[in-house]
Automatic annotation (TrEMBL):
Gene that specifies this protein: pyrD
UniProt keyword annotations, A-Z: Cell membrane, Flavoprotein, FMN, Membrane, Oxidoreductase, Pyrimidine biosynthesis
Organism name: Dokdonia sinensis
Record GO terms (molecular function): dihydroorotate dehydrogenase (quinone) activity
Residue intervals of the Dihydroorotate dehydrogenase catalytic domain: 49-335
Active site per UniProt: S178
Protein name from the UniProt record: Dihydroorotate dehydrogenase (quinone)
Pfam families registered for this protein in UniProt: DHO_dh (PF01180)
């Protein structure tokens, strides 16, 4: 139904406008009592799907990646669609509008999306207010820096977000890998990244009960840079890695929008993100958990990432192209394996 009726209609309109329309529609349907119908589309209830990763219990291993619910506006409703966990953000200390529109592009023939949103969000305090009413949704908090903050002061932005979100999220994700904030990826270099993660870990250790901190990395890192990531995880003792963010590569694309600037997500990322997961898992001797994300459009794509070494997976572009049934398909495929 989604792919034959709903998606063709939605794809006739501007993707960013459709995103906000869909948010409004899901909220209204939930209020009108259609929550049960939406839940049946993607939910599989089975104790065998539960996973314990970095000290947290996930009801199933399929989560929603950051970028979809930036401001924590729809996490309850999205959880009811079948996701085992929801990652909000990327949030920044101060509200910011993001990059000028048009900034979101569908690449239909490639089953992909290019975005250059630029961390558009209402600021961390706005997200906190919404998260205060959360009762049972497992939430990840993806944090970043404001565009106007120089890199040599970026640590302060991450500290502000960390402190504000700490009581309201279950784990943190440090985002230094988005290609849409000028200079941000420079923070992936070993020295600034060590400083940033060390600072957050020290704050974490001072809390009555620490929370997992994960690092989200780009798929465009070289093998040497990935080896650096393994060293950094070991030395800073963060909980794990999310592999991967969007790519700046345009290899093999056929769509007319392929030259747009921004981060590419969707099917073209499927193999590379799996390669990164496998490299990190094998070279580290499975020393830390990995959340696999990037190009998951089928249940097999998710299984491939789990086989490569991921403990959990996340959806974003695949969810847009395939609909809630993809969540159900993945969880059923996991159960079928036994």
């Amino acid at each position: 139904m989604y792919k034959t009726l709903v998606r063709p209609l939605l794809f006739k309109f501007d993707p960013e406008k459709v995103h906000y329309f869909t948010f409004s529609l899901i909220r209204k349907l939930s209020k009108l009592g259609f929550g049960g119908l939406m839940k049946s589309m993607g939910t599989v209830e089975d104790k065998r799907l539960e996973r314990e990763v970095f000290g947290l219990k996930f009801k199933n291993p399929v989560g929603l990646a950051a970028g979809f619910d930036k401001d924590a506006k729809l996490y309850k409703e999205l959880s009811n669609v079948g996701f085992g966990f929801i990652e909000i953000g990327t949030v920044t200390p101060k509200p910011q509008p993001g990059n000028p529109k048009k900034r979101l592009f569908r690449l239909k023939s490639d089953s992909a999306i290019i975005n250059r949103m630029g961390f558009n969000n209402g600021g961390v305090e706005e997200a906190v207010e919404r998260l205060k009413s959360n009762k049972d949704v497992l939430i990840g908090g993806n944090i970043g820096k404001n565009k106007v903050t120089p890199n040599d002061q970026a640590v302060e932005d991450y500290k502000i977000c960390f402190d504000a979100l700490f009581p309201y999220v279950d784990y943190f994700v440090v985002n230094v890998s988005s290609p849409n904030t000028p200079g941000l990826r420079e923070l992936q270099d070993k020295k600034p990244l060590m400083e940033l993660l060390d600072t957050l870990q020290k704050k974490n250790e001072q809390m009555p009960s620490s929370k997992p901190i994960l690092l989200k990395i780009a798929p465009d890192l070289t093998d040497d840079q990935l080896l650096d990531i393994i060293d950094i995880v070991r030395e800073t003792k963060i909980a794990g890695v999310i592999a991967t963010n969007t790519t700046i590569s345009r290899e093999g694309l056929t769509s007319e929008n392929k030259t747009e600037m921004g981060g590419l997500s969707g099917k073209p990322l499927t193999n590379r993100s799996t390669e990164v997961i496998r490299f990190l898992s094998e070279k580290s001797n499975k020393a830390f958990p990995i959340i696999g994300v990037g190009g998951i459009h089928t249940a097999q794509d998710a299984l491939d990432k789990l086989d490569a070494g991921a403990s959990l997976v996340q959806l974003y572009t695949g969810f847009i192209y395939e609909g809630p049934k993809l969540i159900k398909d993945i969880n059923k495929a996991i159960l079928k394996r036994g």
